[in-house]
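Q: What structure does this chain adopt?
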Amino acid sequence: MQCYLADTQVYGWVMVQEKSCDVLIIGGGLAGIQAALQASRMNANVIITSERRVGKSGNSVIAQGGYSAPFGHADPRDNPEVFYEDIVKSGEYLNDKDLANILAKDSCRGVDELRRAGVTFEMYGKKYAQKQYPGHSYPRNCCISKEGGINITLPLLDQLKRGRVNVLNHFHALRLFVVDHQCQGGLFISTTSGEMIVIGSKATILATGGGGSIFERSTNVKGSTGDGFALALEAGMALRDMEFIQFYPTIMMSPVDNLLIDFSPFGGDITLLNRKGEPFLEKHCPKAPESCTRDVKSQAIFREIMENRDVQGGVMLDISNLHPRELIENVPSFVRVFKVRNLDPFKETLIVAPAAHFFMGGVQIDEHCNTSMEGLFACGEVTGGIHGANRLADSALTECQVFGRIAGEETAKYSLTRTFGKCLSPIEAILAEQAKDSLVAVSPSKIMAAIKGIMWRHVGIVRDGKGLEKGIQELEKLRNEFGQRKEVSDRQDIYQVSKARNALTTALAVAKAALARRESRGSHYRKDFPTQDDRYLRPIGVEMDNCGNLSAF
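A:
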């Protein structure tokens, strides 16, 4: 596909390609793909970029479970109003109510759109097979084929290839171009060759996902380092709700390490046990332990571990009440993993523990996916406000589909009424990036390892003021390492340092927001402030000053 401008120029030490488009999308998961499809259908000229491969990488691809939508096919009492109430209840009423309402109202439309695009859902005749998940009043999980999210992205990718969309794989966004508080594109570097591309755009969409990889234990794909959060902060925007990180409670540690399996459909037929063989969820969720939401389960498991009732750093998962056929039907990937290793899950001691899973916070958007910056839109996990203090189970793919479509439509309409304005010249952008990111004394991999350890120790599931202050102090010390420079030897250094810098910026945003919220709410638990305080029934914001310092407000 021909873009408006495709020129190549040489600036000193690096060759730069220049491109322009109506709509630039940064991120190749479900939200980004859906945005690209919608924008292109409205005759916008679209470029979509991804650090890896559009539609074949990112957290959308590895998502399990399904897609929540209140069709009422399993229980006719379900409807969008009930779904909305469940969303805000799970979010401890900290949600942006308008966004939560859009998610609830548009979710059924999203399922039907995906089905028409070739995504296969389990059906009972002409009705969706809907399952019950914790936190939902009624069964509303529409089950995708058992391999999960990739069975959504691949059919959409096929459509993308047939449309008017230019796909740029293996390109990392180094910075956004901002002129007079208006976003006009960005600077990108190839993750394979070090080639740089300047992309000018009338509208830009952040669809970069979350940042779970800044924690030592995470369900996220490698490279999920909060790039979009850092891009937004560096462009002068504020983030909200960054203290709220959802930890998935039951990530397997043994006999298979770091295996995410969604056992939600089994409800009370599986049990979590401590070292003494005692069920313990009843202590934390006495009314309905089988319906505990992820935040409550994760905190309960963490307490058992901290109070020395753990088994090898986790707790036991008892599946003895299940029939082998139920495992095959509901979690076939779990069965395959054990079969390949010649293991019988009913004979092994299954040990699980929580891991960082999802960011509720991020860039504030309105009902049109506009951010506070002219020309910049956002959708997917990079945004904040939809889920409040805790995301309801199986609503991540729903969010990506619903708001990805909205972002695509709105940017197309926006771009078709705009002309290209004055943009930062490529040479200015490259020199600024060379000064910022290519010269650092400490190995980026060492910085990343240090960040993961600090976040897990001090900014994890259970927090307190002293630990958060210690974590911030250690993160600030790492930040100072970026001021100790050495001569760049490889353009790939720019990419690796950018990733480490983004991870560090995201980590500091989380830690400072967590320190500022002196209460416990949803996924944010402070043992020095263990109860809710209505004075904090508001978003905590994080912003960056001109010197790169972060502060919460």
